[in-house]
Amino acid sequence: MKRFILSVAMLAVAGLAFAQNPILDKKYGTPYEIPPFEKLTIENYREAMLKGLDEDAKEIQAIVDCKDEPSFENVIVALDRSGELLDKAEIWSVLKGASSTAELQALASEMSPLTTAHGNAIRMNKALFAKVKYVYDNQAKYNLNKEQQRLLEKTYNSFVNGGALLNEQDQKRISELNLELSKLQLKFSQNLLHDTNNTYVTVDNVKELEGLPQANIDRAAALAKSIGKEGKYSFNMQRPSCNPVLQYCKNRELRKKVYEMYNNRCNHNDEYDNKAIAARIIALRLEKAKIMGYTDFAAMQLKDRMAENKENVYALLDQIWAPAVEKAKEELADIKAMMKADKVKGEPQRWDYMYYQDKAKMAKYNIDESLVSEYLEINNVQKGIFYVAGKLYGLSFRERTDEYPVYEKTAKSWDVIDKDGNVIAIFYSDYFPRDGKGAGAWCTSFRGQKYDGAQRIQPIVCNVCNMTLPSADKPALQTIDNVETMFHEFGHALHSFFRNVHYSGVVGTERDFVELPSQINEHWAFEPEVLKVYAKHYKTGEVIPQELVDKIVASNKYGQGFATVEYLAASYVDMDLHVLTEVPANLDVMAFQTKKLEERGIPKQILPRYSVTNFSHSIGGGYSAGYYSYIWAEVLDCDAFQAFKETGDIFNQKVAKRFRKQILTPGGISKGSEMYQNFRGRQPKVDGLLENRGLNQ
Length: 697
What we know:
This protein is mainly alpha-helical. It is 55% helix and 6% strand. The protein is built from 28 helices and 9 strands.
C-alpha cells in the first residue's frame, strides 16, 4: 500500500494526471463528438477550465507577440479561433441551468471571477487592441467579404464596448465593476433557483383542493412525500406546480398564498432576499455606463440593437399599453360578473384573476382547457413540432437516446436530418421540471455551429423547459400555454440548426431580433391543419374534433389584455430602472416598481410578469434594458407570418425558403433590419401584433 501511495505521488510530481479527463482529449470518440456527460466530473470541469484559461491567455499573447504586420488573418481570425479548450470546457455552464447541484453552484462561484478577469484582460490589452485597430483602420486593403467585414466590425466594437479606449484608471474601475457584477448576478440567480424550487405551500386536506384536476392533486401528493410530508399536498414555485392552483382551485385563501409566494420570490428579508442585490446591480451598471460615456445604462445597451434608443422602446410600449389596459378592463368586468355569480363579495384581487378569467372564458366560448389538455400529450405535441419543421423546411428527426450520451435520464436526443439525408444538428429535448432545474424555458447549446476547415460541424442544441409532468393515472398532458412554449423554444432551435457562419464572432443577432425565429414558430401551433396532426386524445387516439378546434381558435385572443399588461409592466420596470441617471443610495426596488406602475395606471389586479427580486431576464442578465425585445420581435413575427397567410398556404415553400435563407441562416452577418428587409421586402408594421392579440377590436 505504501509503495502504491508513493507511486501516485511520483506520478503527480511528474505532472501526469492519475484520472483521465475526457475534456482534455483531442477527441471524445463519441458520435458527433457529443460530450460524454456521464463520465465527466466536477474536477474534470475545473481542471479543463483552468487549463483552458491558461491556453487562451497564451494564444492571445502569441497574437500580441507576432512580428508580422497585423492582418485580418493573424489578428482577427486568430482571435476568433482562440479559446477552443475554454469553449469546450464550459459545457458545465449549460448544465448549471438545466441540472444544477451544490457542486456546480460552487464551481460557478469559483469560476465566475476568473472568467470575468480573463475577459477584462483581453478587452483591455492595449497591445492587442492596437493590432485590432490597425486592421480596422486599414480594412480596405484586405478585400474582405461581407462576413469578414462583419466579424471585423463586431470584434473592434467588442473592444471599444469593453473599455479599450478608456484611460488606465477607468479601465481598472471597469474591471472591478465587471467582477462585482458577475458575482452579484450569479448570487441573484442562485437565490432565485432556491426560492423557486425549495419554497412550498402545503395543505393538509384534499378538501382544500376543490376544483384542482386530479392529475395536479396526484403531483402535489408526490411532491409532499418527496419533502417528508407524506399524506399532505405541496406546491413549489415552478409554474407547472403553482399555476394550476391559481387557475382551477376554488380555495381563495390557498390561491392567495400561492400567488404571493410566487410573486415574492427572493423578497422575504432572509438570506435569499434579492432586493439589496438588485439595487446594487442597478447602481453598478449605471456607474459602468457613465464611465463608458453614456447618460444611462439603457443607452449603452441599446446602441447596437434594432431599437437603437430608449425613445423608440418607450414609443412601442406606449403604443400597445393603452389598448392592452382597456382590454384588461373588459376582462375585469367579466371577472366581476363571475365573482358575483359565485356570491364572492368585494373587488377582485390579484389571485382571483386566473381563476375567474378561466371561468369567464369557459362561459364565453364553452371551452374547458382541462379537457383540451387531454388532446395535448407531450410526445404528440413534439410530433406536431417536428411535423411543422418537416413541412416548412424538409427536416426529419431520428431519436438516438439509447445510443447518444444523455446528461439527464428524462432528456431525449435526436438527429436532425435535412431533405438530402444529412445530419445537420443534434437536438436534445429536456421538458420536465426537477430539482436543480431553473424556472422557465430556454434554448441553449452544448456546441454551436462552426467550421473545421471546409467541414461544417453540427451544433448540439437543447430545449430546456418545465412542462407538466405525468401523474399517477395520466401521461404528461399540457396546457395551451405549455404547447406554445414548446413551439417557441423549438423556433430558437431551428435558428441554431440552420445557422451557417464561418466565424464564431458573427453568430449572434441583436437581442431584439433573436426572438423572431422563436415567436413566429408559435403561429403554427394551433393552426387547424397542425392540430389535426398532433392533437389526439390520450386515451382513445381520437383526433381533436373540429368543433373544439374552432373553439380554440375563437378563444385564443381572450385573456390577452391581462397577458399583455403583465408583460408590458415588466418591460417598463426593466427600462425604468436602466434609464436612471442617478441611483439613490437607499433604492428600494420593490417600492420603485410599485410607484412606476401606479403612475402608468396599471390595474391593481395585475402585477408585472416578474417582480424585480425574481426578474432573472433583467437583473440576472441577458435581457437587461432588453425585456422589451419579446414585444419588439412580436411586431416582426406577426408581420412575417402574414407573408405566409397572404399566399393562402401557411406552409408556402417559396416563403419558407426565403425565411430560412434571409432570417435563419445568416446569424449576425447582417443586421436585423437588413435581414427583415431582405425577407419581407419592407420594414414591419405593428398592425399584425395588435390584431394577433385582439387589441384593435
